[in-house]
Amino acid sequence: MTAPTRRRDGRLGGIDPRAVAETVTDPELPMLTLADLGVLRDVRTEDGTVVVEITPTYSGCPAMGVMRADLVHALHRAGFADVDVRTVLSPAWSTDWISAAGRRKLAAGGIAPPGKAPVRAAGPVPLSLGPTRRTATCPVCGSEDTEQTSEFGPTACKALLRCRVCGEPFEMIKEI
Amino acid sequence: MGHEETVYEALDHAHGGEGQWAFGTGFDEPLAGVDTTVPEGIDPADLGAYCLMLGDDALVLAQRLTEWMTNAPELEEEVAFGNIALDLLGQARLLLARAGSVGVLGRSRERATASIPDEDALAFFRDPGEFRSTALVEAPNGDFGRTMVRLLAAATVRLAVFAQLRESRDPVLAAIAAKGVHELTYHRDHAARWVLRLGDGTEESHRRAQAGVDAVWPLLADLFTPTDVETRLVAAGVAVDPADVRAEVRSVLTRVLDQATLQVPAWPADAPPRGRTGEHGPELTELVATLQGLARQHPAATW
Fold first, then answer.
1. Of A22, A119, B161, B215, which has the fewest CB atoms closer than 10 Å, so is most exposed?
2. How far apart, in whole angstroms, are the C-alpha atoms of residue A121 and residue A116?
3. Which chain A residues contact residue B79 at CB under 8 A?
4. For B169-194, b where at least 16 C-beta lie within 10 A, e where not — what string?
5. Mean pLDDT, range A47-68, rounded to an integer
6. Considering the entire predicted model, what is its pTM?
7. Where in chain A are the domains?
8. Which ipTM did the prediction report?
């Protein structure tokens, strides 16, 4: 096979590596791309190598390895031989980085999108002893009369809720 | 990912089809691509030793919490313990990887094959005497009440330390702490709400929660005395002086216990650090044997 000609900006035959990276989806939320999720932080070309920067959602997110492999694989298949996927830890990921399109896709997929993330000031973190109140819209009937049934869900990023109107249990991405 | 491939094929592809070490997650080095240069004026050996202290606390507590899998009183709490353990395991991996990045590997490299990444080598191939965790996280779970009181105490201490560590002169440590603060906040508050429910619940739940408090309190004795490593790193602007978080920890725990109608026992007198210098009881030996047994018997196994 003849390798396509590489241009100085890293594009191969007019293919933008960023556009390729932006098609890769989250392994656990396949309705979202890594770009929608705010995990894809940067795509650039350095000396002919495509450098992709990603940030973990949670410290223990077990999907990082798969995300990394999927990005490398997608870029290889698009003809980019040299791909370097780098982790960036700072600033820490926030659900506020989930795009508007990402929020629509989550809701359409039956998962309530997160509200605004709490503001983290410097200094000691205040204790919160009351129940966590979450405002969510039921992804089935659209009612806002919902209750949280569990702060923890099937993955680190989700809580479990139930709609008081239609009775549907559903997941919600926790604000972080 | 491509539609014609499975997750496993994608991972296999990433490794040239050689298979994956069976016990860790070597395909995903947590610091891959992170600039791990040590800033000037920081002793790498001290930095690595400090990362082991913070990393081992998280690793050991994660292992304790996973003992509740299939044993928790309700499914939601099992899921909660699993999630909290996963966050802690993630923090442990980052911190052990940071220790490895500055060459602090103990004797783990004598036993782990070269393809096993540093954080896995440190977790699976060190002896208990090389761990730097504290008795607070090593103690057995006891019942649900005691587990929650211990989680409350451990998360309160760790959150107080991490909140200050966000200003560390080591940018990697600062970034790990900034991320961890988000997680530790809901670990602490979740445990606090459970201690409230149990303390201010039935006679039986109150009795058990109080017994948990009484069992956990002596474990706070050696948490607030810095080791020599910490003292040097505090001076270098890298570490948090554990003595500096004592007041905040006591204030948070007192608030929760007061509201839970539980009695706050006398605070134990500050004692010299034990676990931080490698002194551990038999509980840790047993925990490490469970954690490492299979990997030590089959160090080259792949899947």
1. A119
2. 15
3. 150, 152-154
4. bbbbbbbbbbbbbbbbbbbbbbbbbb
5. 91
6. 0.93
7. 17-87, 99-115+134-173
8. 0.89
